[in-house]
Amino acid sequence: LYARFWHKVLFDLGHVRTTEPFQKLVNQGLILGEDGQKMSKSRGNVVNPDDVVSEYGADVLRLYEMAMGPLEQVKPWIMQGMEGVSRFLAKVWRVAFEEKDGEWVVSTRIQDTECTDKALIRVVHETIKKVGEDIEKLNFNTAISQMMICTKPFIHAEVVPLKEFTQLLTVLNPFAPHLTEEINARLGSRTLLSETEWPTYDPAALIRNEVELVVQVNGKLRDR
After folding, report:
1. Could you tell me how far CA 71 lies from the centroid of its own chain?
2. Given Cys at both, which of 54, 70, 125, 146 links 201, Cβ 3.0 to 4.6 Å?
3. How many beta carbons lie within 10 A of that of residue 215, not counting itself?
4. Torsion angle, CA of 124/127/129/131, rounded to 10 degrees?
5. What pTM was estimated for this model as a whole?
6. Which among 106, 99, 65, 104 has a CA at the least distance from the CA of 189?
7. 104-115 pLDDT per residue, tens
């Protein structure tokens, strides 16, 4: 409201050339307390961000706020949701590192080699495409869901290709900058993820050459 007021004053005075200060306005939805009511000190339902950061870290707080739902919707704060986001980031960490003698060391699965797993390549490029498009649309919650899907094949892979894993870290970086930069640095990179170019997806890698069909007879699985 005040931005528009001052901008129109400046326009009337001839200092700016546009009648409106923004090309697009997005109203962020209100975050309610866990009781479903508007946060206020009198109700005692205010969530202190400092307390959340102290317990879970800044990345988990950032990620949870964006994963709660569509940006413009009103939604309640649910502390249990923090656990899910925290577990997701822990999984990303464990893809890169393994615990040895009480310390985290780079996993032996991480290898700087060409990836031959077509399914892994496809999900990485699907993630690059979707996260890039979702950020432009401010659909942060669906972008996070896609990155969670992308993390699963890395968890179960016998070999984690460094290039593809770094691409996942790069698209995750705007959402969880501290964790991703720490992982990237420990993996030997001297360049900040925030200073690298956004990865580009290969349309050819998105093509599915095989599709699994389930055959049922009278409701019973007969073949795949």
Report:
1. 14
2. 125
3. 9
4. -150
5. 0.82
6. 106
7. 999 999 999 998
